[in-house]
Amino acid sequence: MDCVTLDTLIENHEPVNLIDIRTKNEFREMHIPGARSLPFAELASSKGFLRYRPTIERVYIVSDDRGQASLATGILRASGHMNAMVIDGGMKAWIGQGFPVARNFTSLRLPNLLSAIAAVLAAVGIAFAVTKILVAAIILILVGAAALLLKVSLFAGATATELRTGNMSKVEPKRWRGIDVTITRPVHAC
Fold first, then answer.
1. Within a domain: residue 50?
2. Are 56 and 17 in contact (CB under 8 A)?
3. Are 72 and 87 in contact (CB under 8 A)?
4. 44, 60, 56: which is closest to 81 by C-alpha?
5. Structural domain for 43, as ranges
6. In what order do the strands lie in the sheet with 36-37?
7. For 118-165, what is each residue's pLDDT tens digit?
8. Are the C-beta atoms of 77 and 84 separated by less than 8 Å?
9. Nearest Cα to 59, choosing from 40, 47, 46, 72?
10. Hey, is 82 helix, strand or coil?
């Protein structure tokens, strides 16, 4: 069958069973509207024979390789599709004559998408946890440093002896913070 006849069938909304035996990637890039992908490797596998019920419905095979298309029609005929036929010229002829093509845009499958979202959320959660720990550590360091500075400023003028004894000796004169202190005993009148 030629591409013009196939296009007429599609435009007239005739039931068309169109199988594209090119690879999944080639099918995703572009295919004839209404076609379904069944790569030749899957069709030729032993499971391929078991999937198809005998029918007299027409099946059209699309491929860029005429040899694979002929083998595919032989496989389908052997499994009961008596009206399997090749589209002459395949996708190259279809595109060359300017007929419409459909494209499947690459998208993430749902399980992969959910896994990716879970991984991103886990990474964000870990980042928030680390950030909270870092913020708490910085706050504790700043509070500790402030306490040390306050303690140092309170006891900056005191000498080591004064801090150790806590008072001045009453017997001998001392210099206390730059002031000469002499302790005298009061004189009694008795």
1. yes
2. no
3. no
4. 56
5. 3-96
6. 36-37, 17-20, 55-62, 81-86
7. 778 778 878 878 888 888 888 888 888 777 777 766 655 555 555 455
8. yes
9. 72
10. strand
Q: How many domains are there within the chain?
A: 1
Whether the Cβ atoms of residue 73 and residue 85 lie closer than 8 Å to each other: yes
How many angstroms separate the CA atoms of 11 and 161, rounded? Answer: 107
Provide the strand spans (E) within the chain: 17-20, 36-37, 55-62, 81-86, 174-176, 179-181
Domain membership flag for residue 138: no
In a domain, 22, yes or no: yes
CATH assignment at residue 72: 3.40.250.10
Three-state DSSP class for 58?
strand
Asked if residue 105 is part of any domain, the answer here is: no
CA–CA gap between residue 159 and residue 175 (Å, rounded)? 11
pLDDT of residue 171 exceeding 50, the answer is no
Coil, strand, or helix at residue 168?
A: coil
Give the model confidence (pLDDT) of 28-37 as tens digits.
888 998 898 8
181 backbone dihedrals φ, ψ, rounded to 5°: -115, 120
